[in-house]
Input
Amino acid sequence: MAIKSSFSTPLGEAACENDAKKLQFIEDVTNNTKKVQERYLQRFNLCGSTDRCSFKAKVPVVTYEDLLPDIQRIANGDRSPILCSHPISEFLTSSGTSAGERKLMPTIQEELDRRQLLYSLLMPVMNLYVPGLDKGKGLYFLFIKSETKTPGGLVARPVLTSYYKSEHFRHRPFDPYNVYTSPNATILCTDSFQSMYSQMLCGLLYRHDVLRVGAVFASGLLRAIRFLQLHWHQLTLDIASGELSPKITDPSIRTAISEILSPNPDLSKFIISECSSDNWSGIIKRIWPNTKYLDVIVTGAMAQYIPTLEFYSGNLPMACTMYASSECYFGINLRPMCHPSEVTYTIMPMMGYFEFIPHDGSTTSNSTTLVELADVEVGKEYELVITTYSGLCRYRVGDILLVTGFHNAAPEFKFIRRKNVLLSIESDKTDEAELQAAVARASELLKPFGASVIEYTSQADTKVIPGHYVIYWELLLKSPEEMPGGEVLEKCCLEMEEAMNTVYRQSRVADGSIGPLEIRVVKGGTFEELMDYAISRGASINQYKVPRCVNFPPILELLDSRVILTHFSPACPTWTSCKSGS
Ligand code: AMP
Output
């Protein structure tokens, strides 16, 4: 009689011994949330006292702006232990910005181990829900970006670039549950075209092996689909001939691809027949028929992409596996196959010290009202505050989370939103003040024509990939005949893009992941109609404010039905990699 090996854990039947250990680890840290958090504080030398009360009394809650002078000192080369007793190994460039530039997050060498630890928990959880993931590969579109150096010589780059370039990733031991179709060389190329092309090619070559398709964010996976729409012809030529396109010049990529590419006319024909069809619905399932799920984040700002992903994937399940940032990796989703609207993340207590500002809509909260990880209450919203191993102390991340329940003693959070973000296509985050400044700057160009912007609103239009910003303008004109010409309005579009933060401009220029900004001029009186509509739905006349971003379909319909002119930015705004730290 065959004996079935069993790795039973409170989370479920683990797929293998290693998984069982990892799942048990999750159980241990979540059962001991308070203890693990307390142990964290003991690392602080608070004049001899390491208890929570002293911590709360002595350490202020801060924002990035409060830390900026210290961060600048480190960036300029001061090696004294300013934020952290460990040497700062590099800066991680966040997609959050301060004064238009990416925030620089200090990090230390050992943080890589902690990030690796969080990653190592993902597949054991996934294997509880999807069997057989060791029988094939994952098609993941992963990218690095260019890096820069601060004046003091520290590297500044995005956290994922740092991770993919690390020994941890490049020399990861073989794990049958984590085999990628993309060779490392295709991921580790800063040229986004060559990287995407070669990753897509490998994905096509291994089409029957692919069991899951993913990218970090939903927008990244849709960019890959768009790339296939634009480049399938060349890709199928390469597959038919077994010769890699000369456009791919990176020698490491060429070597890696030469090992797997040989003439395959049948595969080429199949892909031509699928891609030349006008019907791209369910294309992911057709090209990669064994795909069990999509591995992409579709929570927060990414929720706008769910319908498009459903369309291209033929309604495959979408797994949101983790919640992380440049500052700190926070937690994982213990039920990754749940519906996107049900996704919750359990913060892993060993990743940092976590506190929560009750978020009741009012902006006043002081540091004594902060709640600890184990003490948050179900049904309440909080703003996340973190203290990290790399020197951030009681730092406000800017994310608003809702507690939906507990796993053991660790709370599960639904990501509600990021504070102060109006528009977002992918990692860009444009707030109300930035949009206001951009409109003000562009409307200067109308002055010579005696015209001005009297009202505006916006939407992130993601119906077409790449998505783009749409800004609705109502203009005040000297007379209806004096509408500024198309060229002027195009210049206004570009001027607005020039005014956007560096993450927006990089996405536009270097990544091509945001399309040209569009201005839609609406008929005079449209914004009054908008107000009438809001009032008819119960808004108070006294308190009515023009929404600076709209996504409610009836309001968008109203706006779009009043559009009299539409213009797009005719060129890319300025962006240079050396200034922004990409
Ligand atoms: P960055 O520092 O550029 O890596 O951006 C981190 C931010 O991305 C977080 O603070 C969140 O606002 C957002 N984010 C990260 N993971 C998720 C997720 N799983 N769901 C929603 N938003 C997320």
